Amino acid sequence: MNTKKILEIMKAISEKIEEEKDTLTELDNAIGDGDHGINMARGAKAVMEKIPLLITKDSGAIFKGIGMAIVSSVGGASGALYGTAFMKAGDVLKGKMELSPEDFLAAFSASVTGIKTRGKSTIGEKTMLDALCPAERAMREAIQAKKSLKDALLAAADEAEKGAERTKDLIATKGRASYLGERSLGHRDPGAVSSSFMLRAMADTL
Prior knowledge:
The chain is mostly helical. It contains nine helices and no strands.
């Protein structure tokens, strides 16, 4: 994957988030502040504005630049977590103009670890990690089996969607939704859903 394709993927993610902002707001109205869709759409707009400035950059600088755009424009925990994810990926990809499947996996794994550390959270707590951890495992298994990055991303997106769906059966123990306790049951986590949207956009664009 070259830097041109990375920027295409970033554009596709931004368009997907803008398209789905009402869905994300609806989900967050049920168990959060009701602003996840608005915040994510603001971040998507900031990313779209940043993309033209990153055309000549290496992949590490692209991910760092996207991360910084997210942190500076997206409010709440999701801005800090998604911003951290992209910046951690950028650290791993510093100086690289072409990415192998293994490079992409390393960056994605660093992103997930960054979210765990920043959010002091893990799988099973009704957060975005309930989509991202199964996705990371599926991507790793596919790449270790020497499948293409496209196939690995498709597998990751499938698992992220299943993981997001499973959050309906979890009681939130992190974030604003944790205040609801058992009343958070029956609702998908907005962060898990936005993560699954992003992975599907990546897979469809590659």
